[in-house]
Amino acid sequence: MSFLGPFLKSLVNSEDTHASAMKKAGISLAVFAFISVFFVAITDSLTADKIAENQVAMLLKALNEIAPKNSYDNDLIASKAIINKVRNKADSGFMSNTPVYLATKANQPATAIFEVTTNKGYSGAITLLVGVNASQKTVTGVRVVKHKETPGLGDKMEIPKTPPNQTPWVLSFNGKSLNNPELVRWNVKKDNGDFDQFTGATITPRAIVNAVKSTLLYAQDNMDALFALDTQEAAKNSLQKKETN
Amino acid sequence: MSATSPDHIDVDENGDAIENKPNRQLSFGKITSDALWTNNAGLVQLLGLCPLLAVTGNIINGLGLGIATIITLTCSNMIIAFTRNWVRKEIRIPYYVLVIASIVTIIDLSMNAITPELHSVLGIFIPLIVTNCLIIGRAEAFASKNDIPRATLDGFMMGLGFTLVLVVLGAIREILGSGTLLSGASLMFGSIAENWTLTLFDNYQGFLLAILPPGAFLVMGLLIAVKNIVDKRIKAK
Prior knowledge:
The complex is a heterodimer. Chain A is an alpha+beta fold.
C-alpha cells in the first residue's frame, strides 16, 4: 500500500483537462478493481477446500438423519447415482437429474435416499431427501433441505421451525409405504387423503406428499436396478483401482 | 466528497498537509445518537426497505439480516474512509459498488468456511445486503468525508439502528402473524435456544396479512408514526 497511496493520489487532480481526467479516472478505477479482485481471489482460494468439506459434512449429517450411521457401512457420499429418466414425469413433480444415495450394509442394499426436487410448491422448488428402505419399500424418513415457502406458514415442514409441543409434520411419513395407506389415500386430507395439511398452508404439504408418493412409485419398480447398478459400479471402480495399482 | 485541490492545501502547525478535513468534526456521541434515533436508517432515511420488509417475518430473521448488515456496513465504511483521498470524485460511485460487492463476497466466503452453521442461517441474507442502498448511502454521505474512527463508528451504529428496527418489526409481525416469539432461535443460537420460543396464544390460527409483505408495510408505517409522535412530545417539552 505504501507505494500505491501516492500513485493513486497523483491521479486525483480536479483541474485536469477533460481527456486526461477521463484517462486518470480509468486507470484509478482499474487499479481499485485489480485490488478488489485480488482480495476476493485470495479469500476464495483460502476457503474453497474448507467450504467443499463443510458442504459434504452437512449433506452427510442430513443423510444420517434418515439413514443412521449404524444402518450402513459404505461411503454414502461416494455411492451417489443420478436418475435421469423418471416415469410419469409430468404428474410426479420430479425434475430431471435426481440424485440418489445408496446405503448398503455388508454389500446388501439397505436404504436409498432420493434427493427429490418438486416444482409444485407455493413459491418455487422444494428439495427434500426421501429415504426408502430397500427391501420393504417403506419410508425411513423425509427431510426438507431447500425451499422458498412462506415464512411462518409453509416453512413449518422444517423440523426446527415446528411450533413447540407439536410433532414435526415430516415425521408422519416414517414407516409409510404404498400399502399403508393405500395408494388412493396418499393425499392431504383436503384431497381425501390420509395426511394432515397445516393451518394456512395446503399447497406445500400437497407438493411434499405427492413427491414422496412419486418417489415410492419409482422405488417400487427400480430399487433393485439402482442397487445392481451401484454394485456394478463399485466392482468396476475397485477393478480400476486394482489396475492403477 | 470534498476533494482538496493541490494548489491550496491546508497546512497544520507542523507544516503537514491536512487532507479533506471536514469543517466540523462530529463528536462520537452525536454520531451514535444520530444513527440510533435522529437519523435512523430504517425509520428516517427509509433506506434498505427491500431487505427490511422482505425478511422481517419473525425476530430471528430480522436479527440475522441485522447482524449481516452491521458487519458489512462497518467494514465498508472503514475501507472507504481509509481510501477517501485516493478516489477521484468521478469514479466514486463505481468504486463504492466495487468495495461493497467485494466485502460482501469475502464475508460470504469466510463465514461459509469458518462458521458453516451460522452461514446456513445468515447465508440467505448476505446476498440481500448488496441490494441495501443503506450501505452505499453511508459511504457517500459519511465515510467519504470523515476519518476512519468516525466512519467505523458510524457504520456500526447505523447498522445497529437498522437492526433494532428489524427486530422490533420482526417481533410485532411474529406476534400478530403466528402468535409466537423467537421461533427458530435454535437455528441461530444452537441447542441452548431450543426452549426460547414463546407461544403467546394457544391454538392461535395465525394472521396471514401480518406475515406477507403488505403487513410489513403496515407495521413499518405504524412504527414511523410512533417515532414521529415521540419526537413531537420531546420537542414540545
